From TrEMBL:
Reaction catalysis annotation: uridine + phosphate = alpha-D-ribose 1-phosphate + uracil
EC number of this enzyme: 2.4.2.3
Recorded superkingdom: Bacteria
Coiled coil: none
Pfam families referenced in this protein's UniProt entry, alphabetically: PNP_UDP_1 (PF01048)
Source organism of this protein record: Hominiventricola aquisgranensis
SUPFAM superfamilies: Purine and uridine phosphorylases
Protein's name according to its UniProt entry: Uridine phosphorylase
Stretches assigned to the Nucleoside phosphorylase domain: 17-200
Entries under PANTHER family matching the protein: FI09636P-RELATED, URIDINE PHOSPHORYLASE
Amino acid sequence: MEIMPHLQIRDDLGVHYAILPGDPARVDRIAEQLTDVEELAYNREFKSIRGLYKGVPVLAVSTGIGGPSACIAVEELARVGVTHMIRIGSGGALQPGIHLGDLVMVQGAVRSDGASKMYIDPVYPAVPDFDLLTACVTAARQEQLPYHVGLCRSHDSFYTDQEEEMRTKWTKSGIMVSDMETAALFVVGRLRGVHTASILNTVVEYKDDLEQNINNYADGASRTMQGEWDEIHTALEACYIVSSAE
Ligand SMILES: O=P(O)(O)O[C@H]1O[C@H](CO)[C@@H](O)[C@H]1O
Ligand SMILES: O=c1cc[nH]c(=O)[nH]1
């Protein structure tokens, strides 16, 4: 038996599905939708629990902010036998018509991060697993949740002097939303043979004040908290759909 150096979880858990928020506080809110919850470890930004969703064993593990810590989580989860990973993140809309709390199911990610480039050439695509993405879309449609399917831009920068120009550039290219971890998850997951998907809860609307809106989310603003509940529910249902088909 081995203990993973960063997640501090054992390699004999025998769980195939993991839900991955960035924020450790979101792990506790995932626990509310699970039964038989057990806290496994809380080391650095990585908080890990195990529980059941409709009888399916699931892990919830926070990945922290940005590609480097997300890659560490993906690598160590793959080493303990997790085969399906769904990010449930927060993001900022880059297009009009995407409202607070709407879900964006990511179909592909622009690799504006550094971590995925440490693994492989930037021409390598950052795309989700088709069946897992389909299961997420099926789940959201089933529950009649507000959702979109489109592209995201995963970035490493929040406070550079070029943020406004970067956002305008990606808006013009039809990118739907920004986050910081999806590209790294898709690339490293693909290289390690893991099925990945990413669902982003919109916490900043197009052209709205980025910092103010992220503060509102941290304060528990109701539409973004509803979006968070919806993305957790969608990801758990997707795990159930995929596990039932196996
Ligand atoms: O809410 P999470 O999942 O952390 O996602 C988003 O929020 C953080 C930035 O505020 C970044 O990690 C970004 O990807
Ligand atoms: O632009 C944004 C907004 C929210 N979260 C991000 O990572 N980027």
